[in-house]
Amino acid sequence: MWTLRAFNAMDAADAVRVLTACCASQSWAEKVATGRPYGTVASLKAAALAAFDELDDAELAVAHAAHPPIGKPRPAEGADWSRGEQSRALASAEAVRAELAEVNAAYEHRFGRVFLICATGLTGEEILAEARRRLAGDDRAEAAASVAELRKITALRLDKSFGAGPAATAPGTEVRP
């Protein structure tokens, strides 16, 4: 977790690295980093989400592609967060995890991307029900739902990075001055 003072004082490359852990779009991270210094965490988050809302389809695809399928966190930077965010799904019964893998595969085949949901606090059964519902939807509605979920994940990770919100501890980190 970072203090706002430390974030504001970082060089640009370090600030971008901190931000890309929240959203993998390089252009988003650069835009948010360029907006420093921020007076409050709330103003940082507002600027970050406003910048998110300006991402084009190509940048959204980059950000989306950085997320692993539900139930299969990737062994890379951000994987601790993915595992934490998916912890209730990962704790589901084997049958639910197997069915979720099948629905994930069907979703990816149909839409060309992994099923994305802000999984924090959701059970495997809840995620599976939402995946089935969205798999049955039309392409346009699903694209909008996917972007909305990506935005929620970005907001949650900003909260974790800067200590705003209920789960304000980034795995494996401590508060840095």
Q: Average pLDDT across residues? A: 85
Counting DSSP E segments of at least 2 residues, the number of strands comes to 0
Order of helices and strands: HHHHHHHHHH
- The whole-angstrom Rg is 16 Å
So, the CATH homologous superfamily? Oxo-4-hydroxy-4-carboxy-5-ureidoimidazoline decarboxylase
Write up what this structure looks like:
InterPro entries: OHCU_decarboxylase, OHCU_decarboxylase-2, OHCU_decarboxylase_sf. It is an enzyme of class 4 (lyase). The chain is mainly α. The chain has a single domain, classed as Oxo-4-hydroxy-4-carboxy-5-ureidoimidazoline decarboxylase (UraD-like, Orthogonal Bundle). It has ten helices and no strands. The longest helix is centred in the C-terminal third of the chain and has 24 residues. The C terminus is likely disordered.
